[in-house]
Specification:
single chain; alpha/beta; Leucine-rich repeat, LRR (right-handed beta-alpha superhelix); eleven-stranded parallel sheet; 11 strands; 32% helix
Length: 646
């Protein structure tokens, strides 16, 4: 018998009527904008497929900025790594400049990888060991900055082999910065006395920086001694034979003579490490302290091209050392130095501050702001001032992180500000009075006219006064500072483009930016009878434009709420500053407050002023700590983890 075929039923085909309209998706119902109009809004349409190599290199160099910045968030650096890797997988034209941005400073100074980060480091070294003829891209000359977390990558053996600096630097002909980090040197600085099992040898260091002999394993690479631009000295990572007295001889070598940036980490006075508490006042202990300070100053003076000096967690940093520093320093960073006082720093600025451009002072427990009165006259070229007045406990069992100074700033210590300042950041300012705080902000507003380059202001003021007085300060000082320095409109857009637009109507940049900002925020002008905006507007009459007035009136001012303010209440929030009514100009508001003759700076992109009585903690959470992690960094939930505790 024949096998009967299985009957298959077909679904009837639904035929559409000829006259029935075709259903469209909601996206298709939207009005379509011609691509030419979109490109005209951007003023330029670069040919992305045919851009030259150096243009792509600049683009990815900007993307890789968080990787090179040691102060950036770990999530930002990881996101930059993922972006560069994605760009390298796009096409062959983009692959090499993307990898050049990644290899310029390989991300091995912090562990934002998973547990296999050491394996990744070994794969990185294996890639560099390959001959350029075996790879599509020559990776060796792309590496310029090497920052390594010693505890993760060098202190542990891989396959029974201990990594050395010679092995790491043997295939890097263009390295200019070598910096070794350890997690115990980071805040809260309570592991500074911990013994580290990994130390590099002097022979290994000199061999790693020496030229490769002809016929060696990397004969096509480094043929001259490595020319360093940046180096870090760490007292726990150097051998015992490499003392402070010998650092001057090391700096005489060709590889170190070109240093422009040098850091000294965890160098302490001999009286604190070699003598008991009773013998620290003896003549022998004092003589050793003076010799250590002199040796450190001599090693710094042995570098003729030094511009950037960092001294971190060191008791050798005091007034005696500051007097012996070179007068050609452009950047000075003092981090967690307990012996630095405002008197010592003021004396240093008077004699050595003429060339300073960037001054950073962080966690110095004995340093107040008493040096600000001499800042304007002593530092005519200072552009960036960064001061962090938060301190850490030396012992976790009891609180010894209080300031060692009685008053942060007296009422008669009026600060002076250099005209070259571009950014000022002073956070966790405490141990002062309300009158001193008012005097501090008044000095800035009085000198606003002489600060044409100022673009960023950030202050965090801690005052232990009644909450009503703090609220009054917010209204009289913080809001007034914002009114004087804050930029109301976005900065003028630069006209330098790859291709100039043709056939476009010339309009004022300020009016164009106002229309864009209003469209982007979804704001509509409430003035229906506004006069038409002319094609040419005088810069002095821009405040009378109805569009700008309407946009200003729609700004929302949200009150700042102090989460840890124990004395705050709903009354304090209800007394917040009320924005001016629609149509009321800035000049009218100033006259109503009695400030008609006040100069309006209006060029700062960032004006962040916080006034509260919150106690500074070692770990302060901010908005960045609650951002979403980069894509791909979160691990999936594994149900087997619950079975362990079941």
């Amino acid at each position: 018998m024949r096998n009967k075929k299985k009957s298959t039923t077909r679904r009837p085909i639904k035929r559409r009527r000829v006259n029935s309209p075709v259903r469209k998706s909601p996206l298709e119902d939207r009005p379509k904008t011609p691509i030419s109009d979109i490109l005209d809004n951007f003023h330029v349409s670069p040919p992305w497929q045919t851009l030259p190599y150096h243009v792509w290199l600049r683009i990815f160099d900007f993307v890789a900025a968080p990787i090179r910045d040691t102060a950036s968030r770990i999530d930002d650096a990881a996101e930059a790594v993922n972006t560069l890797l994605s760009g390298a997988r796009t096409c062959r034209t983009v692959a090499e400049p993307a990898l050049a941005g990644l290899y310029k400073c390989p991300p091995f100074h912090r562990t934002y990888f998973n547990k296999s980060s050491q394996v990744s480091f070994m794969q990185f070294l294996h890639t560099l060991a390959l001959q350029p003829s075996e790879t599509i891209i020559n990776y060796r000359p792309k590496v310029e900055v090497v920052r390594i977390d010693v505890d993760t990558f060098l202190s542990r053996k891989v396959g029974g082999v201990q990594l050395t600096l010679t092995r790491v630097l043997s295939d890097l002909p263009r390295i200019s910065a070598l910096e070794l980090y350890h997690s115990s040197d980071d805040p809260p600085y309570r592991d500074l006395g911990k013994h580290l099992r990994w130390k590099f040898s002097e022979e290994d260091l000199l061999k790693a920086l020496a030229p490769i002999p002809i016929g060696g394993p990397a004969a096509d690479g480094r043929t001259k001694p490595t020319i360093l631009r940046s180096w870090r000295w760490n007292s726990r990572l150097v051998p015992e034979t490499l003392t402070l007295a010998r650092l001057s001889d090391i700096h005489e070598l060709p590889s170190f003579q070109t240093l422009r940036k040098v850091a000294y980490v965890n160098y302490q006075l001999p009286s604190l490490t070699e003598f008991s508490a009773r013998a620290r006042e003896s003549e022998e202990a004092k003589s050793k302290d003076w010799a250590a300070i002199a040796n450190l100053a001599a090693s710094i003076s042995a570098l003729p091209n030094l511009e950037h000096l960092i001294i971190e967690s060191s008791t050798l940093a005091n007034g005696s050392l500051l007097e012996r520093l070179p007068k050609t320093l452009a950047r000075l960073e003092l981090v967690n130095c307990w012996e630095i006082t405002s008197e010592d720093l003021a004396t240093f600025l008077v004699s050595h501050g003429g060339s300073l451009v960037h001054l950073t002072l962080k966690h110095c427990q004995s340093l107040s702001l008493g040096f600000l009165p001499v800042l304007g006259t002593s530092c005519p070229n200072l552009a960036h001032l960064e001061v962090d007045l938060s301190y850490f406990r030396h012992h976790a069992s009891y609180a010894d992180n209080k300031p060692e100074y009685a008053t942060l700033l007296e009422e008669d210590q009026v600060p002076t500000w250099p005209a070259s300042l571009q950014s000022i950041e002073l956070i966790n300012m405490r141990n002062w009075t309300r009158e001193a705080a008012e005097m501090f902000f008044e000095s800035l507003m009085k000198n606003a006219k002489s600060l044409p380059n100022l673009r960023r202001l950030e202050f965090k003021v801690i005052l232990n006064i009644e909450w009503r007085q703090r609220q009054k300060l917010r209204q009289s000082l913080a809001d007034r500072m914002t009114r004087v320095f804050k930029r109301e409109s976005p900065p003028p857009r630069k006209q330098g483009t790859l291709r100039h637009p043709q056939g476009k109507m010339q309009t004022s940049p300020d009016i164009t930016e106002m229309h864009k900002s209003g469209t982007r925020l979804g704001l509509k002008s409430t003035d229906q009878h506004a006069r038409p905006i002319p094609s040419k507007v005088d810069a002095s009459s821009t405040r009378s434009i109805p569009v700008r007035r309407s946009l200003r009136s729609l700004k929302l001012v949200s009150p700042k709420f102090d989460a840890d303010d124990e004395e705050s209440s709903e009354d304090e929030l209800s007394m917040c500053y009320t924005p001016p009514r629609r149509g009321q100009s800035r000049t009218t508001t100033a006259k109503s407050a009695g400030l008609h003759d006040e100069f309006v700076h209006g060029l700062c992109d960032v004006v962040d002023i916080q006034i509260d009585n919150q106690r500074p903690a070692e770990r302060q959470y901010d908005m960045d700590d609650f951002l979403d992690s980069p894509e791909g960094s979160d691990t999936e939930w594994n149900s087997e983890e619950d079975e362990v505790f079941g």
